[in-house]
């Protein structure tokens, strides 16, 4: 799997970047040279500045969740099949997963995220990669959202770095599961050792239950903390069964 291209905006933002994880803030310089402070988990603010999210989470904190997911999915899906399969990237962020999948030969990629700033960022920075985008809350999809999912008819759903622990709840994961046809693929990253985490018990029950069979599993780095500690994840590629939860 090829490395994520480092765009000029990302390099520029990373040049004077300070991550204060204890204070939950990022300090960076805007285009005028003025120092700005943004919440480390203020995804809307991070997405609204070209290159800032990638500079923080990929250049400075060494994020690898999208890479691990894309590598696992490419291991399961043969190259000749990739251009024709409809992918739905859930929790699309700034579109890093889509860019990696496009580099691997996937051509039909749509994205969704709860945060409106994500849609703006993807359209701004990676509009050529995604052929459709929609902001929605998968825990409470509207009739329009459900109609969009049915029309899209995804054969692959990807979720990188957004499952559990205050991120994508099991209700959203259930909605994604229902959108997949039998033999459709779910590629998801989740905290390493999730099977033993009480907070992720419902996620584990769905992912490891009768609704899916496991195709491949990889362990690897999610990202580093600001002081260099490793946060590990598991990437799963699961095949939807005929069983509906």
Describe the structure.
The chain is of the alpha/beta class. The protein folds into 2 domains: 8-60, no CATH class; 65-240, Vaccinia Virus protein VP39 (Rossmann fold), CATH 3.40.50. It is built from 9 helices and 10 strands. The strands form 2 sheets. A 7-stranded mixed sheet has the order 6-5-4-7-8-10-9, covered by helices on one side. It has a 3-stranded antiparallel sheet with strand order 1-2-3. It starts with 7 loop residues before the first helix and ends in a 5-residue tail after the last strand.
Percentage of helical residues?
A: 25-40%
Mean pLDDT: 92
* Largest β sheet strand count, sense and barrel closure: 7 strands, mixed
Uncertain parts = none
What is the name of the CATH topology of the largest domain? Answer: Rossmann fold
- The fourth-level CATH homologous superfamily of the largest domain is Vaccinia Virus protein VP39
Strand tally is 10
Record the strand order, biggest sheet: 6-5-4-7-8-10-9
CATH class of the largest domain: Alpha Beta
Count of DSSP-assigned helices: 9
Radius of gyration: 17 Å
Structural class: alpha/beta
Q: Could you list some keywords that capture this structure?
A:
three-stranded antiparallel β-sheet; 245 residues; 33% helix; 9 helices
Write a concise synopsis of the structure shown.
The protein is of the alpha/beta class. It is built from nine helices and ten strands.
